[in-house]
Each structure stands twice: as C-alpha cells, then as structure tokens.
Write a structure and sequence with these properties.
About 35% of the residues lie in helices and about 20% in strands. It is of the alpha/beta class. Strands 2, 3, 6, 7, 10, 11, 14, 17, 22, 23 and 25 form an eleven-stranded parallel beta sheet that branches. The chain has a six-stranded parallel beta sheet with strand order 1-5-9-13-16-19. It is elongated. The two termini are about 40 Å apart.
C-alpha cells in the first residue's frame, strides 16, 4: 500500500494547487530547458560548427531576428494557452468525478434506507439496489457487500412463530434474507458479469435456513460463518455443492452450530486455502461431504462436537489435504485445542473413495460415532 508521501508525489491534483502564474512559469522553464537540450544535442551531432558573424547586421538579418522573436512569443503564448486549457479540462474532470461520486453516495444512502424500511417490498428492493450498486461502484464494493452481510446478521428467529400474523411477517423476512444470500452467491460464480470473488464476507452470528452457494469459488478474502446457526425447515437446506475452496481463501465455521436440516458440500473441491470447523457443534443436521475432493487445503475440526445427526464422507477422496480432528497445539499462543468429541453423532468415513492422506484423529480407539473404511485401524492413523 502506498504511503501518504508516495500518493502526494504522484497525484496530478497536487500540481493543480499551484497558482496559474507559477504553473505557467514552470512549464515555460521546462520548455526552454528542453529546447536548449535539443539545440545542444543537434549542435554536437553536426560536429560543433563555429558561428561566424560577417560584418554589420543587414535588414534581412533584422527581419529574421524579428521572426524568431515573434515565434518565441507565439510559442510562449501557446504554452500559456495549453496550461490554461489543461487546468480547465482537469477542473471539469474533477467536477464530473465529484458529481459521479455524489450520485453513488446518494444511491448508497437510498438503498440503505430501503433495507431498513418497515415494508418488506422496500427491503427487497433495497437488497437488489445495494447489489447493483456494488457491481457499479468498485471503489466501495466491499462496503456495499458489508451492508448486505450486515443485514443477514440482524436478529432473526430460527424457528417460525405459532400465531398467524407473526408467521406471515417471519415468512416475508425469510424471503428477503434468501434473496440477499442468492445475490451474494450469484456473484461468487465464474459466470457472474461482476465477480465478488476475493472480497470479505462476514456472516458472524447469522441464522441461515436456506442458502444456495452451488458452484461458488472462494479464491481469496475471509469468509466468516463464526457462530452462525444453520437450520432447516421441511426440505430447505444450505448447499455448498461443487464449491471450490481455492488457495488464498480463509473460511471460518468456528463455533457454528448445525442444528437441523441438511448442509451439503457434495463434490466440493478443497484445493487450497484454510477451512476451519473448530469448536463447531453438529447437533442434529445432516452434513454431507459426498464425493468431495480433499487435495491441497487445510481443514480443521478441533474441539468440534458431534452429538447428533450425521456427517457423511461417502465417495470423498483424501489425497493431500490436511484434515484434522485431533488435538492441535498452537505454539505461538502456548495453548492446546482439544480434539473433536464424538458423543452421539456419526461421522461416516467408511465409504470414502480414496484414503491416501487420511484425516488426523490422534486417538487410539475409535469412538462409537466414528466409522472408518474397512480394514482401517484408527491407531494406524495420524
């Protein structure tokens, strides 16, 4: 990142702070200096010939001198005109840029007001307006994305209320939140006209009962699901199918709770980056990693609790990724993170397609909820 000194030294607007006379004088000096350098170079290239003065000046010589003087004056006038024109053009561009920025700012305020409106239709329109503004306003795209994520972090009941008016209001709010998630996910796919890949997404504490991230690519930035609650109603689910966790991404499911419904990572590709489920709780949801490819990433489940539900790795391949369920020591902090706890839930690795780089458990005996491939002894695993 450039320092303030570097910015001021390279910013053309710093020149515009000069007075007009100073600006003109500087340009004239540079022009004269340039002409002198060019004349000296040409004189040297011509063999440094001597200048001969033969007798008194003739009328023709005087006329030639006048022409040269007039050419110099005309050139100086041209330089002044160019400086004035440049300054006028620059001021017009700055004014247009300021008006352009003011229009974006006004649109941002209007979209934010809509997201905070009482009427569901207005909030829905605000979500689309903020997403479109993020596409067009690249300088503040992260801010617009933060607003959309912030909306999802607002308090929201994970379970529908029993009385009819409250249930209708809950359903309407649910549709808005699903729309916000769809807008975000659509911009994380390769076919999006304006990609949000590489930007930070903060879903800390959000309640997610339906999200469709199929085909998204996390190729950079921090994707934060810390303390998020994943719940499902009827057939609704959270889908990360065919998602790629690539190099440069950091995805945090730390302290998240998978309470009910279905969360799918089917055919997901863990080809780089860092994904952590440490201290997450799997207390009732079905979490599928079917046919997922763990090839070159780091996945951690330290201190995760599997008390109910099923975590299924059928058809998954472990060929290079570090998948760690065991005890982990953080030497820089001099603390030890305890291993995952299997107290009633099921982690099914029995049908994995390739187990050449198996997960780390750090256990001598397999708990009842941990199913390994046939012929695999947990004491032989890392």
């Amino acid at each position: 990142m450039a320092t303030s000194g570097e910015r001021s030294g390279s910013d053309p607007r710093s020149v515009m702070r000069w007075s007009l006379s100073l600006h003109v004088a500087a340009v004239l000096f540079l022009s004269a200096f340039t002409v002198g350098i060019v004349a000296a170079v040409l004189w040297r290239l011509l063999g440094a010939p001597r200048l001969h003065v033969a007798g008194p000046l003739k009328p023709g010589d005087i006329y030639d001198g006048i022409k040269i003087a007039l050419a110099i004056v005309a050139g100086a006038g041209g330089v002044v005109a160019l400086v004035v024109g440049y300054r006028r053009q620059h001021l017009n561009e700055v004014s247009e840029e300021r008006e352009h920025g003011r229009a974006f700012t006004d649109r941002f305020g209007a979209a934010a007001d809509q997201l905070g409106a009482d009427q569901p239709a207005a909030r829905m329109a605000g979500a689309y307006a903020m997403a479109r503004l993020a596409d067009e306003w690249r300088q503040e795209r992260q801010t617009c994305i933060d607003v959309l994520c912030g909306y999802l972090r607002m308090p929201y009941a994970p379970d529908p209320p029993t009385d009819e008016p409250a249930f209708v209001a809950w359903q309407r709010e649910r549709e808005i939140r699903k729309t916000v998630l769809r807008l975000i996910a659509a911009h994380l796919r390769d076919d999006s006209p304006e990609s949000w890949q590489g930007y930070d997404l903060d879903f800390t504490g959000a309640v997610l009962d339906e999200a469709y991230f199929r085909g998204a690519r996390f190729i950079g930035g921090d994707i934060i699901f810390v303390k998020a609650l994943f719940v499902g109603h009827d057939r609704d689910q959270v889908v990360f199918d065919e998602v790629e966790f690539a190099d440069g991404s950091c995805v945090y499911f730390r302290l998240a709770e998978f309470r009910s419904g279905s969360v799918r990572f089917d055919r997901a590709v863990f080809s780089g980056g860092w994904v952590t489920f440490d201290s997450a709780r799997f207390t009732g949801a079905r979490v599928n990693f079917r046919d997922a490819a763990f090839s070159a990433a780091e996945i951690r489940f330290e201190d995760a609790e599997f008390s109910h539900g099923l975590t299924d790795f059928a058809g998954a391949t472990f060929t290079g990724t570090v998948v760690d369920f065991g005890e982990h020591r953080l030497e820089s902090l001099h603390v030890t993170v305890p291993p995952a706890r299997f107290t009633g839930g099921t982690v099914d690795l029995s049908r994995t397609a390739a187990f050449t780089h198996p997960p780390r458990f750090g256990l001598q005996t397999a708990p009842a909820g941990l199913l390994l491939p046939p012929g695999t002894n947990i004491s032989d695993l890392p």
